Write the structure tokens for this entry.
Amino acid sequence: MSLAHCDGGRWPLAPAATAVTSCIVRAGDNPYRHARSLSGWRREILQLSAGPFAGRVSEVAGGGCRGAVEFLSRSVFHIGTAYPGGLTLGVVDGTGGALWNGVRVGSDCVLCAFGDLEMVLRTYDNACLRWLFVPQAALAGYRALRELVDAQKHAAALCLSDRGLAERLRRCADGLPAPSMAVEIGDIAARFVHGYLAGTPLLNARASHAMRATSAVRRFFREHPGASVSILDLYAIAATSERTLRNASEAIAGESPMAFLRAMRLNQVRRCLLAATTPVRITEIGMKYGFLHMPQFSKDYRTLFGELPSETIRRQLAAAGAA
């Protein structure tokens, strides 16, 4: 299911040993809509690197299983949940690899996500992600895996270094749809479960603490989006020291605490502007999310997104009027 295989959103259908129930291709320049492009995912995406965003997703469903290939042009932070009702496995390709739950992972690492457990992922520019999903009822080892992960709590690595399995997942995703789609995805998932249960990988103490500390900061800003805070306030929110919080933020998001906070707020403003259908006051939206110095806010916004807030809202309203 390489993105290059798509032809106007139509897929070459394979002989129906596994009935393909949907084949979807989506592309766009809005990272917040892109976050919802995978069926059933509840994910938020924050753009972290400068420049226009472009995203593409190709997704196939059949036999209860799913496969997807996802491309993102900019470095982004993903947080949320994957396909509900089963196990999602993934691999990331691209310069710089990725940060997964506070651990730097490369192309030989298979990621694991449950539909009701939060995943935390940082990918870099021009990343290609491949995802496979198998429903809980079709995976014999699902319960044992979930019991282990629940027992590990914040220390659960939720990834397995296995070059052969990662390459097999990659070939499977690129080859979809295929007659043996459900069988192949199920076997890959079974092999992952066997390897994970045998190795019981754990995050080290530093990564486990980083997950807890940054989770507290994110939770605070979801509840208080416009709160004016200093770096000292962040240490108090995370209940940790300056050095520990900086290390935690860089391990999880690849950014310093204040840089990540600024990016979070700029993305919140951009999300509001891109959702507008009528004229809005940019100053009021900026202040709502903690920006009190408008010239600096506009400069930071243009540096990250490649355009001024006024250009974003002008383009958005023109598109809304044309819809």
In short: The two ends are 31 Å apart (CA to CA). Residues 3-199 form one domain. Residues 50 and 304 are 4 Å apart (CA to CA). The first strand starts at residue 20 and ends at 28.
